[in-house]
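#struct-pred

JT: dropping the chains for the assembly here, can someone run the whole complex?
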Amino acid sequence: MYPALEVHGLVNRFGSQLVHDGLDMEVREGEVFGIVGGSGSGKSVLLRSILGLQRPQAGTVRIAGADITHMSAAQLRPVKARYGVAFQQGALYSGLTVLQNVQLPMIEYLELPATALDELALLKIRLVGLSAEAVHKFPAELSGGMVKRAALARALALDPGLLFLDEPTSGLDPVSAAAFDELVLYLHGHLKLTIIMITHDLDSIFRTCNRVGVIVDGRMESDTLERIVEHPHPWIQAYFHGARARARLGAVHGA
Amino acid sequence: MAVEVRRSAQGLTLELTGEWGAQQLTALEAQLAAVDVGAAQQVQIATSGVTRLELSGAWVLREFVRRARAAGAVVSFNDGPPDQLGLLDETLKEAEESTAAPPAAAAAGPEATGTLASLGRRAVNAARDLIEGLAFLGRVSLTFLASLTQLKRLRPISVARHVYDTGMTAMPIVALIAFLISVIIAYMSAQQLRGLGADIYVVDLVAIGVLRELGVLLTSIIVAGRSGSSFAAELGSMQLNEEVDALIATGVDPFEVLVLPRVLGLVIALPLLTIVADLIGLTGGALLCRYLLDMPLTQYVNRVTEAISPSTFWVGLFKAPVFAMLIALAGCYRGMQVRGSARELGRLVTVAVVQAIFLVILADALFAVLFMKMNI
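RK: done, full complex below.
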């Protein structure tokens, strides 16, 4: 069985600035994999390369065994139906209601009768914990937490096996962020998803991730959560052992 | 084949196989819909052959189970019901209890319908729009008066940028259009007047037409399309991005830094563009008279000075700042109205351009009547 995602020797360069210098990464089926890195370390560029929004200068990106870096748009289409993406700012289509946002991928990919379309979209919306009132609202009328949930509902529209979450808890209050973590775990458990999550939120990482990949110096150091915190690289040390992280580490090692 | 049905004395046995995901949904629905549960007392479902049961597939199965139960059959699963069904039950329980009040009803509301009501609504909206537009003009005027106390508050650098953006960069297209329009007038009138032996009056038509009306009018229409839309789009996307709110929160008046420089910039730029259009228009007329009518250049110049009175040029130029005001106000007003969505932005940019052009032509018509009454 192929890994859910495999990135090998990824190189991304903008002018003289080298963002990724032979980055390797592997995410196994059923994992919650956290991607961590400093600002400007190339997390977004990595995500864009994986999603096929940007062609890397070198390297391969395999999703469920299929190398997407050399595919045409037509070949990419079925691959794209197998993963869902929840963007950082939601990227909800501002002219469509929440329901229509969730239905859009279904309309594009599936031929469904109108009732099934409505009910399935409602199902996805209920699943992420949005109330019935939110269904017919436009994105501008939603709170930050609701936008994140609506984006997640849209990402789940096609029953993907692989889910990308870009900073899912950024901009949320700690209570909403914790609730979102529980939602991610709930979906991971019940839908047997593989989840790849870019995040800075240490609480989120400790609560949800099985393994963590840290982007340092254009490469990725990845390991289990327990082992990565012991990695000697100064940035990783600073990240996991800074003042903000100590309290949580105590919790991990105590357990 | 995803569903195999066997009938026995007690009822039905369904053997499910293959992938049950979103991609197979249409086929699955059709196959399950074809299963007749009417006479069956028992429905046995075996799911061991399903390689992948996803949420959409589970939903279709759940709908079938509900239908069978509603028809009076006892539904049981050979290997126990799959997890996914439990998840669906949990998720949809609340929703189905509250289906008594469908959400669509809330959206419709107690609004009156019918032709008369919609006519009334339009009239009220139009009146409100007009009042709000006047309020906008008032606010811009007050901001202008308040800014006159200090040069810094007139934002000269910002004004200069808008003069450049709306004026300098529009010069090539304005010049080209002015040239072409003078060619059109000269050509058309030459055809008509030649038969009467009155070729010389072609010059009158070109000179008066370009200087008094067409130079300024066409320039204004081009500028309405170029700058009216860009004002509306700029301010509108700033609204969407909460940049306008950020200005207000910082204690900076968006009318002072965003609207007024645009209005002033265009009020300066449009008369300058009009002068360019006039010049090029007359030049175009001269070229055409030279090559089409074989009229020497000196005769053309003499005829132009005879045809126009000293006021002709100024009548045209006088209108330019007024048109500029209308265009800039329409663009900024609609831009500041944008809320919420990209679609709204598109709609209001369109409205801005259409209204700017309409207002320019309306004002031009009023000027024509006014100047005639004044014998200018």
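JT: nice. Chain B has two domains: 3-101, 129-373. The beta strands of chain B are 3-7, 11-20, 42-53, 74-77.
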